[in-house]
Design a protein that fits this description.
The complex is a heterodimer of chains A (231) and B (468). Chain A starts with a helix and ends with a strand. Chain A has 7 helices and 12 strands. By secondary structure, chain A is of the alpha/beta class. The longest helix of chain A is centred in the first third of the chain and has 15 residues, at 2-16. By secondary structure, chain B is α/β, with parallel strands linked by helices. Chain B is 55% helix and 10% strand. In chain B, the strands form 2 sheets. A 6-stranded parallel sheet of chain B has the order 1-10-7-4-2-3, with helices on both faces. In chain B, strands 8-5-6-9 form a 4-stranded mixed sheet. In chain B, helix 2 packs antiparallel against helix 12 and helix 16 runs parallel beside helix 20 (378-392). Classes of the chains: A alpha/beta (231), B alpha/beta (468). Strand 9 (197-201) of chain A pairs antiparallel with strand 9 (269-273) of chain B, so a sheet runs across the interface.
Chain lengths: 231, 468
């Protein structure tokens, strides 16, 4: 039955495609005829990103602030630990959802709060009770102020979205200029076998569904904090 | 007798166009959108080239759709997702209901899916006895009001905070408030537990990536991530036109969708899912079902002239700039997809003769074509729909009038004889204008005819030359 339906749909598609459609850039209604830009140019059309390292970090930080995310640069391992401890105290965390961190584990260990590991079997309703989810990431995108998380590097699928506060511990080597480079990075890292779950997180959860007025914390985290190890 | 779609459309359009409060609301919302969209567009180094490239990506995908769909299906199946190819909405609904039965499902959380709206999925599952909860805030609100979404991106755009507070108070028992923050919090609290309790999550899909066998979901609220990560079963509904060749294509399409759709650099969450929970993973659904839905998309595909309408990424930008949409509102259309794109594709999806009136409700100003991030030739498609509708079912009355007009215009002696009749007929017409006796009533009830000139051009010319 199912395979029948598949071959019927494919047959209809093949029949429909027998007559070729003119590409839009050659269409007389489409303005001046022109050759399509080559795919290598994609970075050139997207919002530009400065070349210098410091400028990129600055752009990323500016984007985060515009998105109402929190930017916490740390210049030494000690500062990372202090920043995390201060965040824990000021936000009055009681229970931390986290996973085995590949970076920043010492800072996390310094917190004496109870922890729920999501890279070990866990109950979702317990994670729902956690005050925060602390994760690593694949990379940070300067162009958009995004954090790319994956099921492999960030403790599964729910940890970064279910608790009301998401804290990312990232290293400056993880900053890529734009989305084009983010996808290049993924393919260099994983080839064709990408993690089953990837998400570009751009700011805390938000909605504009009531009178187009921005409200943070619709269903996902109300707060997103980036601890950025700049050392 | 039940009204036709065309009659319902005209009735609603007429009423809402005169509703100043309604127009004011839409215009306020839109002006916020315009400001944000313009700011984001201007950040692009070259928005126009980006549009051409995005159109080319979709052209490639749609014109080799068979190959890419097979590649997508094989790859996502290899990681344990079940792919179901559905020719019609009925097949899709039956399959999903069967999955729910087999999985002993009671509660379903649904994130936004226009394709799901198209096949009336929520209503069908509710009829089968399942509790179906919309999780997108706008959809949640219109579900409580038992309304259809007003806009493909902003479903509750027509409501103000008072009306939203009222429906929450009535259906959820919350105390009245006029703060959007508090209203959002009420919805958040109502849904929080359900994500963990529901056995099934249903989502739409923005892009299906052939190269890696992954679905891409764009959202702001996090409800789609929660609905697809926590329940035991995840069902994703994909219109077959959502296919794209390469994962790197998203580097262009995601920011363009966000810019054109909501005026954001990138929406809050852009998630790629390549299968259910794998060995060694600790969360994610045990089952993942991907529905590839045709539902007459192949008949649009078979029209090379309008095939590019399948390039649509459902950003809603054409609705937001459309002078018709802004005056008659989303509900007047009576369709799943409103605005210019809806007027173009609905006749293909649901029958040309029943939906041709939408293509006539257009000023042909071309604002839609100009704003479309994948450069669909929308306003010409509206003209083509009009032409096709008349070709299929000629309007004999109009045809007769145009033939008569042509006949007279080609014969100067007839024209000379007929033209002065104007001076007699127009004043007579004025006496019956906009009454049931008026044959041109549809046109004259909102327009004035100019008075007949006392002299024709030829007479003026002759007199002037005579005087000289």
């Amino acid at each position: 039955m199912a395979s029948d339906s598949r071959s019927r749909i494919l047959a209809r598609i093949r029949e429909a495609l027998q007559e070729v459609a003119p590409p839009r850039h050659l269409d007389p209604h489409g303005g001046h005829p022109r050759t399509p830009p080559s795919p290598e140019d994609r970075s050139h059309w997207l919002p530009p990103v400065p070349a210098g390292w410091e400028d990129r970090i600055k752009l990323f930080a500016e984007n985060l602030l515009a998105l109402k995310a929190e930017w916490l640069p740390c210049h030494s391992p000690e500062e990372l630990t202090v920043n995390l401890q201060q965040l824990a105290a000021s936000s009055e965390w009681t229970w931390i959802g986290t996973h085995a961190l590949s970076f920043g584990q010492e800072a996390l260990n310094s917190l004496s709060l109870p922890k729920l590991r999501t890279d070990l079997p866990f109950a979702p309703h317990e994670l729902e009770q956690c005050s925060v989810g602390i994760t690593n990431c694949e990379c940070l995108v300067a162009q958009t102020g995004s954090v790319l998380i994956s099921s492999t590097k960030s403790g599964g699928r729910a940890l970064s979205v279910l608790p009301p506060h998401h804290v990312v511990i990232a290293h400056k080597s993880q900053l890529v200029p734009d989305l084009v480079e983010a996808f290049n990075f993924l393919q260099a890292q994983y080839g064709e076998n990408l993690p089953t779950y990837l998400s570009f997180i751009t700011g805390p959860s938000r909605t504009g569904d009531i009178e187009r007025i921005l409200v943070l914390g619709a269903h996902g985290p109300k707060r997103l904090s980036i601890l950025f190890a700049n050392y | 007798m039940a009204s036709t779609f065309s009659q319902l459309f005209h009735r609603s359009a007429r009423a809402l166009t005169r509703n100043l409060e309604h127009r004011h609301r839409i215009q306020t919302a839109m002006s916020r959108y315009y400001a944000q969209r313009d700011q984001m567009r201007s950040r692009f180094a070259d928005w126009q080239s980006a549009r051409i490239a995005a159109g080319d990506i979709k052209y490639e995908a749609i014109n080799r759709m068979d190959q890419y769909l097979v590649e997508f299906s094989d790859r996502i199946s290899a990681r344990g997702a079940k792919v179901f190819w559905a020719s019609t909405g009925l097949e899709a609904r039956d399959y999903i209901a069967a999955v729910a039965r087999a999985g002993k499902v009671r509660c379903i959380v649904k994130s936004k899916t226009m394709t799901g709206e198209e096949i009336h999925l929520a209503q069908a599952l509710e009829k089968e006895g399942y509790q179906v909860v919309e999780s997108d805030l706008g959809e949640f609100i219109v579900q409580l009001r038992q309304e259809a979404p007003y806009h493909i991106v902003f479903p509750a755009m027509h409501l103000n905070r008072k009306e939203i507070s009222d429906i929450f108070h009535e259906k959820l028992g919350s105390s009245p408030t006029n703060s959007p923050e508090e209203l959002t919090l009420i919805a958040r609290q109502a849904l929080r537990k359900l994500y963990c309790e529901a056995e099934m999550g249903i989502s739409g899909v923005n892009f299906a990536v052939a190269e890696t066998g992954m679905i891409s979901i764009t959202e702001n609220e996090g409800n789609a991530r929660l609905s697809t990560a926590l329940p035991r079963i995840h069902v994703a509904i994909v219109g077959i036109e959502k296919i794209i060749p390469k994962v790197a294509d998203l580097a262009l399409l995601l920011p363009m969708l966000a810019t054109a759709g909501t005026g954001q650099p990138l929406t809050g969450y852009n998630t790629l899912i390549g299968g259910p929970r794998q060995r060694g993973e600790t969360d994610g659904p045990e089952e993942m079902h991907v529905i590839l839905l045709d539902n007459n998309r192949t008949s649009l595909l078979a029209d090379p002239e309008q095939r590019d309408a399948l390039h649509c990424i459902r950003c809603g930008a054409c609705l937001n700039v459309c002078p018709i949409y802004k005056n008659i509102g989303g509900h007047s259309y009576g369709t799943t997809y409103q605005g210019p794109i809806g007027s173009v594709i609905t006749p293909h999806l649901r029958g040309l003769q029943s939906w041709k009136h939408l293509s006539s409700a257009s000023s042909l100003c071309g604002a839609c074509t100009e704003t479309c991030p994948v450069r669909i030739d929308l306003h010409h498609h509206l003209l083509q729909n009009r032409r096709n509708a008349v070709r299929q079912k000629p309007a004999f009355g109009e045809q007769f009038i145009y033939r008569l007009f042509g006949f007279v215009m080609q014969r100067p002696f007839l024209y000379r004889w007929a033209a002065p009749l104007n001076r007699i007929m127009l004043p007579l017409h004025r006496k019956i204008q906009n009454t049931f006796l008026d044959p041109a009533r549809a046109w004259t009830q909102s327009r004035d005819l100019p008075p007949a000139p006392p002299q024709s051009f030829k007479e003026i010319w002759r007199n002037r030359n005579g005087q000289r």
